[in-house]
Design goal:
By secondary structure, this protein is an alpha/beta fold. It is built from 14 helices and seven strands. It has a seven-stranded mixed β-sheet with strand order 3-2-1-4-5-6-7, sandwiched between helices. A hairpin with a 4-residue loop joins β1 and β2. α2 runs parallel beside α3, α9 runs antiparallel to α14 and α10 packs across α13.
Length: 366
Amino acid sequence: MWCLVRVSRRWRCVVLAGRRGPEAPGVGELCGVLRGLGAEVSVVACDMSDRSAVADLVGGVGAGLVGVVHAAGAGDNGLVGSMDVARLDRVLGAKADGAWYLHELTRERDLAFFVMFSSAGGSVLAAGQANYAAANVFLDGLAVHRRAEGLPATSLAYGLWDVATGLTETIDDDVRLMAARGLPALAPADALRLFDAGLRSKLPALVPIAVDVPTLKAKPGALHPLLRDMVPTGAGPVVRNRTRSADPAALVARLAGLGAEDRERALLDLVRGHAAAVLGHSGAEAVPAERGFLDIGFDSLTALELRNRLGEVTGCRLAPTLIFDYPSAAELAAHLRRTLFGEDAPADDLSAATADELFDILDGEV
């Protein structure tokens, strides 16, 4: 949903437009609130990816157009390699194309503001959102471009809002995960205050997110570059809190002494336990064996943390793309078994000499 705002002599007039128009969930309640504040409200359906439809809408508002708030968005998550034209169009059409059409069609108007709802997913929060991240970064760049042309523009790259509508209807897991990483969801009242602050700042692009500094300081693993300056330097460096008490050689020896099924189970428990710790869960049972890592809340930062944890505890040199190559706990555990013991090694018939050779490899070559 996005809105065009125009002001008459006595009334503030708001035009709400979106793909579903009057059929959009909650639009009746929103209109009631706005009318209670003294506004004249109209709601229309408009496909933001259709330039002619946007042109008709802007033209219909008339010469009294005062400002634009562009908040349209669509989701179709996936990695870069999984993108095709249809998936790109679905997400970039509403957000990026829509913003550009509004830019073109209003650039000759004397607007007081031109606000675009971007997302911190283009800066720090996204994983598996190749098209969505690109669309939001486009909005940030468009705001800078408009300012360079002397036009009003503010792009607000919001973090998660603590609401459950539209793109955020299923954000419970994301809210919990981001809070555990020091980036709690924004209460709507706080988000709106940051909206006002963004307009007052006169800056083209901002990232309004909530930051829990004590949690950032205590969180194991490297901080994202965007967040490093938020941890006070006087508190000392952020310490990576991964245990080294589990000697890789001892782990291999223990696994080598197990039968086939027990070894598979032990490696799966190892992967699930570390995955749960990275996500802030209390136990391995929170990580289903067959469910994809990206589906349970992993992103690029937590993926790297899991890879580093497993690399340290097993002594294996693991690829940075580990969870994308082996996208579930079961697949990753099977990969670790093959890496440690070989593809065709009998799982319950490893001799002491074989274990000694593995120790030599772990100590000398990894």
